[in-house]
Write a structure and sequence with these properties.
about 425 residues, alpha/beta, Rossmann fold, six-stranded mixed sheet, about 15% strand, binds glutamic acid, oxidoreductase activity, Glutamate dehydrogenase, NAD(P)-bd_dom_sf, oxidoreductase
């Protein structure tokens, strides 16, 4: 494609990764644009009344990557960095992620360019509801199903569901996932991504012959993914030596008390102020020696600058797109030194349990928590085995292997269906 609306560093990164995997899979040139470029992109203006009486307009987006396997699926991000390129890249990654896990979805992602921490609770509700209202013609339980991402949570999903339902004149639980259990959500969704990361870290440790009780971990990001990952790793016996969020970073080789951190976050809403003794420069945190490094915040934090200096055994990507292609090339050269759990495998627990939520909502039949996690771990185990086997067989990195499996699924469905989806 010579020109498109998709640009920026994050989309370029998704494109570069795709080209690499397409070359490996020898996908003919004429099929590549269909596989990479999103089917649809929606841009909306969302006006709200601010508390001080002003009217302000925020830009919102939703990108639906492909319709080949079923409805599209993916989170909604409220962050200052949001633009159509970033959202498109995240939608593309959702596609490979869903395909790798065997879910009947194409990828999607949406977002609003806003710092949610600058909004009052009333303004946040108004913006969430306005965004969903603008999206009503383009989403639906069998068209596109939203979920939380950075800057959104269960409450925002409840407002989305309620706004959509008011328009339909009846409750449509299955329009979004990641809802509170009291509003048609599933048990386990909130913890799903973090517990999935911890499960896969456990499998990687087994693979390397390291006991969880002897391992240390550093977690960057203490939102829904990072905090549950830290908690679940600690539950498995891993010592958490470092954590950070956008306000502070802490490192203590003797181990941090995760329950204490959690209590601090519940009270203050941020890590800053937790301790004055173990503070450390956030950029240094990634370079400390540990067994498991979990980037669980932003894209593009592992770069060609810090990749040569990482001192971890396992890189477990809780965030989407934390490692740049340049950093990947360096990790590849470092060979078996660092065992990478690539994002589309490592953080897939979220969308897998979102799928369970959607299935339960459609059936009006709800599962016990044990059933949710049993099914989740079975899917993650299968994906983990597939990625390891494919990487070995094709002599490629875990990331390339995970993507190759995902891209293959979408490619063969497109080949058998035709041009429509
Ligand atoms: N936003 C999450 C992700 O990036 C979850 C998406 C979903 O549950 O649909 O995987």
């Amino acid at each position: 494609m010579s020109r498109s609306i998709y640009g920026g560093a994050v989309f370029e990164m998704a494109k570069q990764q795709f080209e690499q995997v397409a070359n490996h899979l020898q996908i003919p040139k004429m099929e590549r644009d269909r596989l990479l470029y999103p089917k649809r992109a929606i841009a909306v203006s969302c006006p709200i009344h601010r508390d001080d009486g002003r009217t302000e307009v925020f830009q919102g987006y939703r990108v639906q990557h492909h319709l080949t396997l079923g409805p599209t699926k993916g989170g909604t991000r409220f962050a200052p960095s949001v633009d159509v390129g970033e959202v498109a890249a995240l939608a593309v990654w959702m596609s490979w992620k869903c395909a790798l896990a065997g879910l009947p979805y194409g990828g999607a992602k949406g977002g609003i360019t806003v710092d949610p921490y600058t909004l009052s609770p009333r303004e946040l509700e108004a913006l969430s509801r306005r965004y969903m209202q603008e999206m009503i013609p383009f989403v639906g339980p069998h068209t596109d199903v939203m979920a939380p991402d950075m800057g959104t949570n269960e409450q925002v999903m409840a407002w989305f569901m309620d706004t959509y339902s008011m328009y339909q004149g009846q409750t449509i639980n299955e329009i979004v996932t990641g809802k509170p259990v009291s509003a048609g959500g599933t048990l386990g969704r909130r913890e799903a991504t973090g517990r999935g990361v911890a499960y896969l870290v456990g499998r990687a440790l087994d693979h390397l012959g390291v006991k969880a009780g002897d391992a240390t971990a550093i977690v960057q990001g203490f939102g829904n993914v990072g905090s549950v990952t830290a908690y679940s790793l600690a539950e498995r016996g891993v010592k958490i030596t470092g954590v950070s969020d956008h306000t502070a970073a802490y490192y203590d080789p003797a181990g941090l008390d995760v329950a204490e951190l959690q209590r601090h976050i519940t009270k203050r809403g941020q890590l800053a102020g937790f301790s004055s003794q173990s503070t450390i420069e956030p950029s240094d945190l990634l370079l400390r020696k540990c067994d498991v490094l979990v980037p669980a915040a932003m894209e593009q934090v592992i770069t060609d600058q810090n990749a040569p200096k990482l001192k971890c055994r396992i890189l477990a990507e809780g965030a989407n797109g934390p490692t740049t292609p340049e950093a990947d090339a360096i990790l590849d050269r470092r060979g078996s030194e660092i065992f990478v759990l690539p994002d589309i495998l490592c953080n897939a627990g979220g969308v897998i349990v979102s799928y369970f939520e959607w299935v339960q909502d459609l059936q009006r039949l709800f599962w016990e928590e044990a059933e949710v996690f049993d099914r989740l771990y079975r899917i993650l185990e299968r994906s983990f085995q597939q990625v390891i086997a494919r990487a070995k067989h094709d002599r490629i990195s875990h990331r390339m292997a995970a993507m190759a499996i995902g891209v293959n699924v979408v490619q063969s469905a497109k080949r058998t269906r035709g041009l429509f989806p």
